[in-house]
Amino acid sequence: MLDIILLGSGGGLPLPNRYLSSIVLGYKGRKILIDCGEGTQVAMREFHTGFKSLDIICITHIHGDHLFGLPGLLSTMGNSERVDPITIIGPPGIYDAVKGLTLTIYLPYHINIIEVQKDTLEIISTKNGLTLSTDLSKKGDISVSTIRLDHSADCIGYSFYINRKPAFLKENAINLGIPQNLWGRLQYGEDVQYEGKLYNHKMVLGHQRPGIKVSITTDTRPTEDIPEFIENSDLFICEGTYGDHQDQNKAIVNKHMTFEEAAVLAKKGNVDQLLLTHFSPAVDHPMDYIENAKSIFENTELGHDGLKFTLKFKD
Amino acid sequence: MLDIILLGSGGGLPLPNRYLSSIVLGYKGRKILIDCGEGTQVAMREFHTGFKSLDIICITHIHGDHLFGLPGLLSTMGNSERVDPITIIGPPGIYDAVKGLTLTIYLPYHINIIEVQKDTLEIISTKNGLTLSTDLSKKGDISVSTIRLDHSADCIGYSFYINRKPAFLKENAINLGIPQNLWGRLQYGEDVQYEGKLYNHKMVLGHQRPGIKVSITTDTRPTEDIPEFIENSDLFICEGTYGDHQDQNKAIVNKHMTFEEAAVLAKKGNVDQLLLTHFSPAVDHPMDYIENAKSIFENTELGHDGLKFTLKFKD
What we know:
The structure is a homodimer of 315-residue chains.
Chain A: E1 2-6, E2 23-27, E3 30-34, H1 40-46, E4 54-58, H2 70-79, E5 86-90, H3 94-101, E6 111-115, E7 120-126, E8 129-132, E9 142-148, E10 156-164, H4 170-175, H5 183-187, E11 192-194, E12 197-199, E13 209-217, H6 226-229, E14 235-239, H7 248-253, H8 259-268, E15 274-277, H9 290-294, E16 300-302, E17 307-311
Parallel strand pairs in A: 3-4, 4-5, 5-6, 13-14, 14-15, 15-16
Antiparallel strand pairs in A: 1-2, 1-17, 2-3, 7-8, 7-9, 9-10, 10-13, 11-12
């Protein structure tokens, strides 16, 4: 199960009535934040996401509306007695950007800053929270894929795939007389030696089951690679900076998308649902333009501040 | 005349229903901003102060709630086609802090960063806006005094004195046959040579008249020097982080003040009006505690986001 909260739906500038477009993913009580514009900590407070359970922050690109909330959020986390390290992932340049923004702050915890060099990162859920796996040979709880986007700054799209454990075949375990205290480890794919016997996890595990996929592309022009990257996403969160067809040229010049362009990507990528966000400050009423997306991809939703989704594994 | 807008009334953290405690001073259509916490640009938008007319930013101290709105505000000003330089004044360390916060931003204008070393700065109003005077021998339009405060970081209090020109004695000018095209320069204290005659400004200027004084002390414990620094202010804007007497110990430990302590300073300084601001996030309803100030200094007002004052020269 994955909880998703769209903290804000704005792009470019924080507005009195619209927070900037950051996203919280909640998994097993811990949190991943995607982007952190000015005011993100205020939205987190308003929508009760909590600060203490935040383990990883993914930054798409080094533009203020995706970044300038970091010093405030990190300070607030420090004042909340955090001592566990936090990981910040971003494009090349993120290391210097975070160092600059946090120059004046004393933080009682360590920040791991990772400039994304490779396509996939594995996140594991431990009793201490979500951390990046150092065992690259094995799938983590969440596989994070990245893609280079086409924006006016070096920009990364993220796809989060919640890996689902195969079903545990309880009947097999009983029939084979496997002691119940070993079931948990076997379910996690471990082979267990116990009282002289080797129990192979395959004895009690069913077939692979589909996980949950959420993809996020903001800010960018449409690219050829996006449809494959977002393929079969349960939820595709995409920038829709401009709603009106007449703003097509602005979208091209400013390296953004129209609602229509986002919908075309959603259709090509065969996603379940499209969530549009990152509306231009000039777009007062995104609802006026929703048909520009829906006429191409019916299952389109418009983002608004505090919008929540819960995605469950499909049976 | 001086316009004052209290953009926010909160301290420590930006909250969904309370902006951080920044102040805009408006003089002859141009603006001075005091402090710039996260969300200050949002409050400026909400309360229609404008961005283009901002010339000087005074930072009291290098704590996030007074500083972390800078990168966003400076970016927004850059996107508003600003090319004129802006001046940022602050305590020692402000240079590095601003450099760090703006590391990732391209700004189309220059930032003059001034670490306050001396007690007084003179601001002059020109057709290009408000700038610091380089002629230290002469009073500017606004004289800015500073004072070292007692906080957990190196912190500066600011006092702004709007110097009032002496009255222009029109009758004298007429009786003395002074050509009308010279009146403006004479009124500005200039002596003018014209058609072989020297006109001394004293011929047409009356006595000195009192200006307008606004003093700001946040964040700080009460100090012995504050009453003299704020003396006879038309408006004394002071931190009142805690309202309740029971929080006196917190005020001491965290280097802040209670409402009562601020009121004692206002009384000692013989100011006209006290404006309390910078309320702790734990103080939901400052109004519950206003009597703690009013019982000592009657003309106390509680800050709230967007509160406006207009101070006029006294006749």
